[in-house]
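Bench notes, bay 3.
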Amino acid sequence: MTAVTPSVRRHRLGLLLLPAIFALLMALCISLTSPSLAFAAEAVPTCNPTATNGCVNGILQDANKQPIANVELKLSGKESATTTTDAQGNWAFSVSADGTYTVTMDESVAKQYGLKAATAQVEIEKNSFDKARQVVRFDKPAPASASSSVGGSTGKAQSGNSGANGSTSSSDTATTTNGSAIGANIGKRIWQQLFSGIIFGLVLGLMSVGMNLVYGTTGLSSFSHGEQVSLGGLMAYVGTQVLHWPLIPSAIFAVLIGALTGWIQNELIWAPLRRKRVGTMQQMIVTIGLSMALQYTFQFFFGGDIKGITKSVPASFNLGPVTTDAPTLIAATIAIIVIVGVSLFLYRTRLGRATRAVSDNAALAAASGINVEQVVRIVWILSCAMAALSGVLLGIYLNGISWNTGATLLLLMFAAVTLGGLGTANGALVGSLIIGIVADMSSLIIPNDMRYASALAILIIVLLIRPQGLFGKQQRVG
């Protein structure tokens, strides 16, 4: 009898397992390509848009602006789901595919509460998912082309070519109307993206100015500055959703926590390292480790999902060709006021002039009687407080904050600081506006996930032409 060697035994076992492995892989492929999994919206209590999901949501109210609870709403389109309004009338769907969606309620409910429509349609675009929060309203008549019941009347499908208004028209008229609509839509998108870029640039400037002040006074490029942004947003979430404070006290609480962490960092880490004359390169490596530690600390305590600072959906309105809401305008106004205040502090106060002197030449400033350590301590406190405030404003603007929000924006901060000129506060603001506008406008022609790459490309081009940045001073070597 011939003995079976171990290698032959393993070979036979592999042949026996091969069909089972193949069948398992086929079952996995079929399940992943199943339509039931590929086209499934989700009914959620609150929806926060990200790069992978958009939001279709709203607050159901009657004619007197009172919430309507326990009403069933159905979402149809590329994805479908059903939800019920809560006690405040809130409802939300999270969708993963772009397209036109229809939200429908029972006609009797619409009649009972005096609503003008039982059906509403919205259109959502995938290349703007991270800002797409489509608010659905039932106090306006639905489009005439809707095939379902609208406001208690039965709509019928039109025969022939349907124009932009749902009326029957010739093919030439339809082509002209559609062409005009497309042109108007492109123009509106350009203005909308420009507006979004300015708002994003102002909030980014609030982060970058503080980072540039730290670099100017210490020579340190802090990789943990992004985590100060995340900390501010998460502390605002704690204030509003955990402690149930109003938004303004929660924002003040977040800024104070940010300022406190700036003071603690300087006293426990950076001041001892400076006294030991540790080089800026070694300190920068410490900031990388601190960044990683803070990120995973945030993830441990707050989880990996997006945290909404506010639960209510703000009412949108048109400002010329731009659609916006009150919180967005308030966030932009606060950013402008704080940046102007920091500029006045630097150029009109004694401490601000001392800060600029330390930034220009720390040794000469110390020889002239300026307490350099005190200036650096104040800069750390101010920088981290501004970063925390920007985290609050960013969480309101983007409808949520997560454990790694600041880390995703860190390269854009460095790009803005380098583009404007290292060590110049005003340069950081201008660089942030350029980066913000270019990033948002580029999503008109390239995928939304690549919009930050275009901003970094602009940075490279500018540095090839002007290495010191737009407002930096050219230094002579040798």
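Next record in the batch:
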Amino acid sequence: MACADPAAAVCVPPGAFVERLCEKAHQDYALALFSRDSPFTRLYLRGKMDELVMDEEVLALRFRAPQKGGIVVGSGNGSYDVLRWDGTCSTGVEAEMLSRSRPPQSKTATVRWHRIAERVQDALIASSDAVKKAHAKRGKECQGAMSGDVSASCERADKALVAAIVDYVRTHEEIAIP
């Protein structure tokens, strides 16, 4: 997929794709869109905003320019619709709340293993020893639990699996999506 407008300062996906993407959470597409060679502009939160956290990495999906004339709400610099690592979209993030400079330790929304299509899960396990090991450990520690009351060791194993997935996606060119 290419930028909607290659001449624009911010590379965003085509509008029709963004509309479909933001109808519901799409964990698989988020992983593909965050892959290393994705052309889309990465942005980082400068502070906490609603469910977004400081230093969270997001992708620009659409820029909403400030309205001409009338009452200006916020800074008047416009806002972005963004994609989070968990496949959800956040709308109306004020431009001054975002930076293109990657912080030393960027954060991500929590990737949910059970929301990844089985085909993509299989590809991740087959392609990455770190994901394979983290997945096996999570299976042992969590014994099939996806949510609810889980042990501290299950929570640690889940976080390790998420970290392995994020590391793999950030360092590899392409992620297969259904």
